[in-house]
Amino acid sequence: MERVPILKIGDILLVSIQVDMSDQTAVALQEDLAERIVETGCHGVIIDITALDIVDSFVGRMLSTIASISRVLDAETVVVGMRPAVAITLVELGLSLNGIRTALNVERGMELIAIERADEPYDERDDGPIPEPTASP
Amino acid sequence: MALSADESSRLGELLTSRAEQVTQQWTEIIAGQLRGRLSQAELVRQVQELHRAMVDALGKGTVDLNGEEATELRAVLAEFSRGQARQGFSATETATGVFALKEALLAVLEVDQSIETLRDYVAFSTLIDQMGLFTFESFVRTRESLIADQAEQLLELSTPVVKLWEGVVAVPLVGTLDSARAQVVMERLLQTLVDTGSPYAIIDITGVPAVDTQVAQHILKTVVAARLMGADCIISGIRPQIAQTIVALGIEFGDIATKASLADALRHVLRLTGVETARRQPRREA
Amino acid sequence: MTSGVDLGRPQAQAVGSDEDVVRVRQLVRTVAVAVKLSLVDQTKVVTAASELARNTLVYGGGGTVEVAVVDNGRRTGLRIVFVDSGPGIADVDLALTDGYTTGGGLGLGLSGARRLVDEFDIQTTPGQGTRVTITKWSR
Question: Rounded to a whole number, what is the distance in angstroms from the first to the last CA of chain B?
Fold first, then answer.
């Protein structure tokens, strides 16, 4: 069975899903992540799904579970890079991924986590500001 | 109805032996109908091409236009109809261009009034009728695809996604939103968010005359999809009647931010992103 | 891999494991691209196939999936049939309700898949099995 690699960058764990995951792989990722959060003491998890061309209810549930588990372990999870077609399909499927924070890309995901950690105890969680206007390509 | 093998070969022979006379007659009849809207040279070229394709097809033993031997002939006819459709000729003019061959044939048939000749003529007519109907169909198909293309272009034109500020894009919606258009808007907006890396989108519906349940649902779905991708949508320009409809239909906009105008929406976003905006205070009279 | 798929004939894929569900997704994707579905429609039909193939595996105890290209004269599309000989579904209407689940999932498999496709048909006999047919047409 394939395993999805988990990278540690500073205080953040980065998971970039590059393969069409089987359900077992998804469950294994969930377990691996929980272990790594405890092991590293990281306070942020970024799951990059840019490469995923579909997210079905199983993967959607996995993302929700990871977010809940990491919250219990005092880490913030951000799902980044969801493709438009995937988002439209998820809405139609009836999955709104409540409780999951999202960002357009890894960079914004990192900013989001940084802001979250900066103003603890947090309030106004939904209004994540952008620090500086950056020239995007 | 198909020709017999004999009839087919007799028609081929007639078209070959009297080639010049037939094409000339044929050209003249069409020219009379078109009244100079097509150059003589072009017309002669078209007629000769059709004539050659027919002779070829009959030479291969064509007895029916739908047969395999007539593949080439069908291609030539389709090309002919496409050309006519693109140049703005009517369907009738296109089909009669083919039917004119009947008249041209009648002129060259031996005038012995024998029953054989009559039989042949009726048989030839069957094939020509098939050809005429075929051009008619090709013509309609060409026009349909032209219309579909134009509709698509119109759709593209009517749904611009513009960048308002660093990290803020807007879609000013104008006109009636049907399901197809809402879908296009949704996909374009979301793709623009990715392409520009913008975490904020403003959907301005000032120009939308009415909102029904379906349209409202489409807008709501867009907002939810944008959230899944990590972007926030603000809806602006909700007119009083539309606000009433939304409430009357019992549509929940929930926690989606709504603003009266595009300007208010932009100001709202800029405040969220921490950009300072100088607001002109109304000057007090001394 | 799925390259070199002969689209003239229906393609069958046995579903007996997790990996087979992945193969079903890949097969459906290949055919969806071949019949020129838009990107969003491709995503929708692959997602629906993923949900239903998982149902075939988890609830039906395995089965087969067949993918075929269809043509109604005006449009082309793809038709996918999921067959299992599992316990069947006692109450189809209930199973098609959002949030209803017997397997500990989110209960969106059947109902969600139905929303993602143009045509949806389910035939089931308790004790004998289930057959779900979905069709998606190109626009």
Answer: 97
Low-confidence ranges of chain B (pLDDT < 70): 1, 110-113, 156-158, 276-286
Nearest to B177 by CA among B198, B145, B199, B203: B203
- Which of the four CATH numbers 3.30.750.24, 3.40.50.620, 2.40.128.630, 2.30.30.90 does domain A6-118 have? 3.30.750.24
Domain count, chain B: 2
Range of the domain at C24: 11-137
Question: Which chains share 3+ C-beta pairs under 8 angstroms with B?
Answer: A
Whole domain around residue B268: which residue ranges? 162-272
Whether B202 contacts B268, CB under 8 Å? no
Model pLDDT, residue C20: 94
What is the distance between the terminal CA atoms of chain A, rounded to a whole angstrom? 38
Dist CA B263 CA A117 (whole Å) = 32
CB A103 within 8 A of CB A80: yes
CB A35 within 8 A of CB A2: no
CB contact under 8 A, A53 and C54: no
Tell how strand B232-236 and strand B200-207 pair up. Answer: parallel
Average pLDDT, chain A: 86
Task: Tell whether B138 and B67 lie within a shared domain.
Answer: yes
Rg over CA atoms, chain A: 15
The pLDDT of residue C104 is 54
CB contact under 8 A, B230 and A92: no
CB pair distance less than 8 Å for B194 and A130: no
Helix (H, G, I), strand (E, B) or coil at B283: coil
Q: Do B228 and A131 touch (CB under 8 A)?
A: no
Q: Helices A57-72 & A84-93, crossing angle to 10 degrees?
A: 90
Residues of A in contact with B197 (CB under 8 A): 104-105, 108, 136
Give bridge partners of residue C131 from the DSSP assignment: C83, C123
- H or E stretch at A114: helix A106-118
Condensed to tens digits (0 to 9), the pLDDT of residues B19-65 reads 888 888 888 888 887 777 778 888 888 888 888 888 888 888 777 88
Chain B CB contacts of A127 below 8 Å: 272
Q: Is B281 inside any structural domain?
A: no
- Work out the number of other CB atoms within 10 angstroms of the CB of residue A95: 23
CA distance C94 to C79: 25
Q: Do B192 and B55 share a structural domain? A: no
Chain A environment of B272 (Cβ under 8 Å)? 127, 129
pLDDT value of position B8 = 83
CB B98 within 8 A of CB B128: yes
CA distance C57 to B246: 43
- Residue C4 belongs to a domain: no
Q: Give the start-end residues of each E strand in C36-118.
A: 63-71, 76-84
The rounded distance, in Å, linking the Cα atoms of B47 and A38 is: 83
**Whether the Cβ atoms of residue C50 and residue A54 lie closer than 8 Å to each other:** yes
- Kindly tell me if the per-residue pLDDT of A136 is higher than 50: no
DSSP string, B180-193: HHHHHHHHHHHHHH
